[in-house]
Amino acid sequence: MSHLDSLILKYPDLDCCIPEIQSAYNVLQAAFQGGKKLLICGNGGSAADSEHIVGELMKGFRLPRPVPEELLQKLVNSYPEHGAYLASHLQGALPTYSLVSQTSLLTAFSNDVAPDLVFAQQVYGYGRPGDVLLALSTSGVSRNVIYALELARTLELHTIGLTGKTGGSMKGLCEVTIQVPWDETSDVQERHLAVYHAICAMLEERFFPLRRSNPGDRR
User: Fold this and answer.
1) Please, how many CA atoms are within 13 Å of residue 36, restricted to the half-sphere of its CB?
2) Residues whose CB falls within 8 Å of the CB of residue 206, separated by 6 or more in sequence, listed in order
3) In contact, 143 and 116? CB cutoff 8 Å
4) How do residues 146-177 score in pLDDT, each as one tens digit?
């Protein structure tokens, strides 16, 4: 069963979102394939989701991600005493950054400059053409998220939105907008979790396909 089939089995109401979920995957797959990175932002529960997505893409999620044999040999040859330990415990990663994590920057910029530009400032600092900004907002109108999306478009980043039923202002700013068909914040966030888990699993299978055994998530 595919990850999207599994998603719809658990959440039949998300069937209407499948084309957009596939499109979001396609944008991310192409970006990572091209050596680009993913930036993520959101507020409150969506900030927690931003961190969660980083955790799924920067380490093993459902599949093992052993380092390439070439790197393993370099580590073993360079550091005979512990190179094998390094190589055996490192895991393949897709470069992903949460814009909600930089406490000193967030508080300093909010206090000294403009609190509603804390995400936009980081898009300006980190973003390069071809990178992707994934913005999460259950309402679709969060001002700091909107500003980040506007700047990302100007800087030629790809933009993906995860939002609720109406799409809000995000709908006109994102190349791909996944609008889960709910209005209540908790209902929207529940579906966002299921959606990004499916996308993360699809990306992992694409970039780390060699070993299919599931070691479980040991968190």
Assistant:
1) 20
2) 29
3) yes
4) 999 999 999 999 999 999 999 999 999 999 99
Say if CB 197 and CB 205 are below 8 A apart.
no
Could you tell me the pTM of the whole model? 0.93
The predicted-structure confidence for 13-27, as pLDDT tens digits, reads as follows 999 999 999 999 999
Residue 95: how many other CB atoms lie within 10 Å: 15
Q: Are 165 and 173 in contact (CB under 8 A)?
A: no
Q: Rounded mean pLDDT of 131-145?
A: 98
Rounded Cα gap, residues 173 and 196, in angstroms: 20
Q: Is residue 173 within 8 Å of residue 7, measured between CB atoms?
A: no
pLDDT > 70? residue 219: no
Pick the CATH number of 3-58+93-207 from 3.40.50.920, 3.40.50.1240, 3.40.50.2300, 3.40.50.10490: 3.40.50.10490
